[in-house]
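On clarity, I found the account of how folds are encoded harder to follow than it need be. Since the whole study asks how a given chain folds, the encoding of that fold should be made plain. The format is easy to grasp once an entry is in front of the reader. For illustration, here is how one protein appears when written out as sequence plus structure tokens.
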Amino acid sequence: MRAWQIHQLGEPHDALRLAEVPDPEPALGQVLVRVLGAAANFPDVLMCQGSYQVRPPLPFTPGIELCGEVVALGSGVTGVAVGDRVVGSPALPFGAYAELAVMDAEAILPAPEGLDDAEAAAFFITYQTGWFGLHRRARLAAGETLLVQAAAGGVGSGAVQLGKAAGARVIGVVGGERKAEVARALGADVVVDRLSQDFVQVVKEVTGGRGADVVYDSVGGEAYARSTKCVAFEGRILVIGFASGEIPTAALNHALIKNYSIVGLHWGLYQTVQPQALPEAHVQLTKLVDDGAIRPLVGERLGLGEVAAGLQRLAAGDTVGRIVFTP
């Protein structure tokens, strides 16, 4: 089969190499899937660079999210059948950027029928992250104001939709008019172009000086620092990640004085600590798909040969929604 492999650490266009490799075989409790769609995620960029917390021995095939068709079962597998269309994270080192991948049977979920292969590939991590972040960690309530950083990006676009589905007023921050149009189409009530507007000022204006009850921050750096200027009394700043490359230092005296909470989300931790919570969330999210409340924003559908170039654009922040590769 064809598969991308990381042979040396570096930027995606330097680290990745497309090669012919032997087909993987599912071990005990695993299944082999034909990859129907593989979504690009920022952790894939970090894996190329060697700066992610998961560091498989070289060489390995990256890609942490896919939609696939089950083609073979390992021993001991029950509840899954050949031909099933599934979503989830593959079992590294046999990642999603290949024609075939391996998945742990206990961790796979049924692909929502209302989504095509590319949309289903981009469904799992974005909406699971948003669900656990907004509902489990930040406790977003109807009528509250949600501020979403990078609202036209992969993670942010899902947060905008989930915020609206929860009955919140959503303010989306983007960079540029092209992304502003996307955020509006997603349903954001207010869109701020950070290249020409000060989102702190806008948030204060539209909330009558109160500020945002919940801030969904996957950017870090200056975005986090500025968000502390417009978070509401008893507001929650939800730390999702650091796409800017800058991990901010929290001024705890400021959090104390303004009475807001800094809430972290490591969604992957639920996979080991509370694995039963993932399929429970999947049921709720699939219902939102069926109701037409959420739908993955797939900005680009590319072939398998374009993985390195696509990940490089993701690293540069030059993407809208999710990039999905379809072998």
Q: What stands out?
A: The chain has two domains: 2-123+296-325, 126-268. DSSP finds twelve helices and 15 strands in the chain. The longest strand covers residues 30-39. The domain at 2-123+296-325 is CATH 3.90.180.10 (Quinone Oxidoreductase; Chain A, domain 1).
